[in-house]
Amino acid sequence: MKLHLLHDSSNSSVVDLLELEMGQIKDDKIATNYHPDYKTNPGNLFYILNDPNGRYHKGAYYVLEDGGEFICSAGWNEYELDSNIALVLTRMYVSPKYRVNYHVANHILPEILKEVTQYKHVWATVNEYNRGLYQWFVRDQSGKRTALFNDWPDIYRKFKPIGKKNIYFTEQYVIELDRNIND
Question: Out of 3.40.630.30, 3.40.50.2300, 3.30.930.10, 3.40.50.300, which CATH number does the structure's domain 2-177 have?
Answer without folding.
Answer: 3.40.630.30
